[in-house]
Design goal:
alpha/beta; TIM Barrel; 8-stranded parallel sheet; binds D-xylitol-5-phosphate; binds zinc ion
Length: about 220
């Protein structure tokens, strides 16, 4: 029904060696590379943008799963499309007035559109984005407050995942924040199939082993 996708969050990598860190993760079995784009406004942290995606793209053919924690996602579509991003996941809280235009533009640039929601945002808010012509192809359920790696997984977010999975059996449902060997079961049994993991993968002595364990938990 759905495919297991393991996406290490490059936020936990050594940014000074991004290309080799990306290669290391792919050699460890990663499917996607999760790229956290923060603008210091939507969240209180600042990370990377299109120029770094463009640089990384020169070194890898991997699927670059961009998670936009920014106030004006529309401004990022064109530059990220040009830079070689593969997925463009914006926050519903930042696109209440223009999500249709946004999805249309993301698709026209050849990227996969996704929508994310913060822990405090009810799942019902993404329903309009899943029906009709300009629909998203992935929902990213945040399991921590966005902004930083290494936070504690919020199991109460699994109600959102369960509700979504019941309604959309073949949708890509991604979870992000605090995922690792001790929390993966809660996420996958609720129906998540795309797993973002930063500190649990990069902090492990054997990242390949963690990636294999995460993958094995996804119900395909
Ligand atoms: C947090 C980011 C995450 C973060 C996850 O705002 O969206 O992708 O890197 O890191 P861990 O897995 O350490 O919680
Ligand atoms: Zn993320």
């Amino acid at each position: 029904m759905v495919k297991a996708i393991i996406a290490p969050s490059m936020l936990s990598s050594d940014f000074a060696n991004l290309a080799s860190e990306a290669e290391r993760m792919l050699n460890c079995g990663a499917d996607w590379l999760h790229m956290d784009i923060m603008d210091g406004h939507f969240v209180p942290n600042l990370t990377l943008g299109a120029p770094i995606i463009e640089s990384l793209r020169k070194h890898t053919k991997a699927y670059l799963d961009c998670h936009l924690m920014v106030t004006n996602p529309l401004d990022y579509v064109e530059p990220l499309g040009k830079a070689g991003a593969s997925g463009f996941t914006f926050h519903v809280e930042a696109s209440r007035d223009n999500w249709q235009e946004l999805v249309q533009k993301i698709k026209s640039k050849g990227m996969k559109p996704g929508v994310s929601l913060k822990p405090g945002t009810p799942i019902e808010e993404v329903y309009p984005l899943l029906d009709g012509e300009n629909s998203v192809e992935l929902v990213l359920v945040m399991t921590v407050e966005p902004g930083f790696g290494g936070q504690k997984f919020m199991p109460e977010m699994m109600d959102k995942v369960r509700t979504l999975r019941k309604k959309y059996p073949s949708l890509d449902i991604e979870v992000d924040g605090g995922l690792g060997p001790s929390t993966i079961e809660a996420a996958t049994s609720a129906g998540a199939n795309c797993i973002v993991a930063g500190s649990s993968v990069f902090g492990a002595p054997d990242p390949a082993q963690v990636i294999t364990l995460l993958r094995g938990s996804v119900e395909e």
